[in-house]
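Hello,

Our lab assistant flagged a job as stuck in the queue for most of the afternoon. It eventually completed. Since we weren't sure the result was trustworthy after the delay, we are filing this so someone can double-check. Below is the sequence as submitted and the structure that was eventually returned. Let us know if re-running is recommended.
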Amino acid sequence: MTTAPRDRAGASVHRLTVRYRKTFALEEVTLRLSDGVTGLLGPNGAGKTTLMRVLATAVIPTSGEVRVLGRDPRAPAQRQEIRRRLGYLPQAPGFHRHFTAFEFVDYVAILKEHTERRARHDEVRRVLEAVGMGEHRGKKIKALSGGMRQRVALAAALIGSPELLVLDEPTVGLDPEQRLRFRELIAELAVRRPVLLSTHQTEDVAALCHRVVVLARGRVRHDSSPRELSEVARGSVWFSRDRDPRSIAGWRTGTGDHRNIGVPPAGAELAEPTMEDAYLLLNSAHGLPAAPQEGGTA
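-- returned structure --
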């Protein structure tokens, strides 16, 4: 099977809108993805998963332009070509619980039209080894832990060395060591391809991403490097003995002081801002919950 020369711009959307009846999941979103890791942050309901499903050809937009690997997903033939060259990890992978890990990834490889059995099985073993599941490939999905299932789903996304990776909450269920190994793997893959990574974990974005996009209420609210995002909160984070009632968010730290976010009082002891501080400020600016949320759908 031959493919067209690779487009260095992995994907782009222009004035992308997705509407479900009267509700806008995405509204006038414009983005362009190229090599490296782009982190996608946003509270539940921000539109992150909808955007990823559009890029994965699972959702047809209401309006706007979409190009994935130089192709238009609205055209059936081009949509099929995108799926052959794309690696997609959905937020809730549809596992066949009675399959083994090997059988599940092999099934995905068949769907991606890897028809030669020996070569396909070599590829399945390769990706399972890459995610640390090689020795567990004979275990049934129903017998695996949540973190192990997530690694199997990631292996399936890596079949065929895809030219674009779209990963929706890929570190859910992974323990700290597994997350570190995940970061190593994604950092290596992103040298040669674009990776779009949706997560609630700001530390994953800080560790991996050269760019971070913040979505809220279906619109892009911020698009910059992680360092530039952190600077949004400079001068808006301070320490106090007790939580300041004027803050939009605040918590007691391990030292006993309280870290507050918002508009500091005169003379406050300012703290060095983090990306999470800036994310909380952006959420607050758009009338969203101040605290990051875990799990759920977007």
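-- support follow-up --
The delay was a queue issue, not a problem with the job. The result is valid. The chain has two domains: 11-228, 229-285. The first strand starts at residue 11 and ends at 20.
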